[in-house]
Task: structure prediction
Amino acid sequence: KHALRTIKKKQVSYLRRLTTLVRDPKFQRIDRMKTVALITMEIHNRDVIEKLAKSGCSDHQDFAWLSQLRFFFDKEEGAYGACHVRQTNCKLPYSNEYQGNNGRLVVTPLTDRCVL
Result:
């Protein structure tokens, strides 16, 4: 639980820095759009961390953790390494899917499942 609190503090600090960056009037429009999409994803990540802490998740075998969409990179696999996506007992190769830079992106548990 302490580790989750520590990572949440880092997450909130990161979100504050991104928010400050977006508010800069000199920030280019396209960079602002990318950063807003990043902020949306990071807010979702913050919410996931809160959910894990509230559920008492303390082990990598807890269902609260296993049910999250997780990305792992194995540098020993293949010539350049390989990224895999895991959720519960499913492991799929990551194929560089691009979700776009959608300004109306909303992340929910359902969209997490759709990405997988």
In short: The two ends are 27 Å apart (CA to CA). The chain has a mean pLDDT of 85. Helices lie at 2-23, 29-54, 63-66, 109-115. The chain has four helices and three strands.
